């Protein structure tokens, strides 16, 4: 029996991961702030699938509340799958952003998933098995499409996933999932309006596709992209660009 720890399991993408992973027979550790929602989901999934479920209430922007979650990841009872999903948006442009709000977003979208992955990975490497699923966003590849720092936080999550995947081998699997607009509470929570966004994916479809990519052990899964060739071409272009990085002299166009 394997155990998955899911952050942000009280709604949206995280709640669907909880449902799908419980249906696959995994025990779960559900993390978020809304204990009542987590308890309701836990009871439903225990009854439906007979799995064992722990609920950990934590505001991941609070170091003291984050600590027990980190301890659970480091504990003797292993976590086999970490789903780094909790996250939020922040409307508004950079020039007018409230520094305190930006700080909170960085703690939730950047610092927490980093520390959680760090707490999980030691045991995974030791056991030679384990998976970390990081929920990024297509905005990581299209930052011009949104104002403020949200896209940059998601770009960090993608980059972290790519560097972890390059560094950690030996049975540990890393996946970055890049959803596009998906019908969840994230827009309303940030003060936005989802009805103004065209082409919204249903959250069940998003998670089912992401788990399909997980089963195929993809490093990067972008559910709405119709043809994987587009991603492969993007990666190939990155490789071509990188060939220039090892030149010890500036390129001719930059010489005086
Ligand atoms: N929906 C989209 O269009 C979309 C697109 C690309 C990427 N994503 C990413 O998908 C992930 C999940 O978001 P979602 O769309 O499912 O939104 P959501 O329905 O608002 O869910 C966000 C989850 O994160 C938890 N959370 C928020 N702040 C937290 C905090 N301070 N401490 C602990 N947990 C916290 C929330 O639970 P509590 O309120 O109970 O704490 C909730 O369970 C996020 O990382 C988001 O950036 C979403």
Automatic annotation (TrEMBL):
Family to which this protein belongs: Belongs to the short-chain dehydrogenases/reductases (SDR) family.
Name of the protein this chain belongs to: NADP-dependent 3-hydroxy acid dehydrogenase YdfG
Family matches, as SUPFAM superfamilies: NAD(P)-binding Rossmann-fold domains (SSF51735)
Enzyme class: oxidoreductase
Organism domain of life: Bacteria
Stated role: NADP-dependent dehydrogenase with broad substrate specificity acting on 3-hydroxy acids. Catalyzes the NADP-dependent oxidation of L-allo-threonine to L-2-amino-3-keto-butyrate, which is spontaneously decarboxylated into aminoacetone. Also acts on D-threonine, L-serine, D-serine, D-3-hydroxyisobutyrate, L-3-hydroxyisobutyrate, D-glycerate and L-glycerate. Able to catalyze the reduction of the malonic semialdehyde to 3-hydroxypropionic acid.
Record key words, sorted: Oxidoreductase
The keyword tRNA processing appears for this protein: no
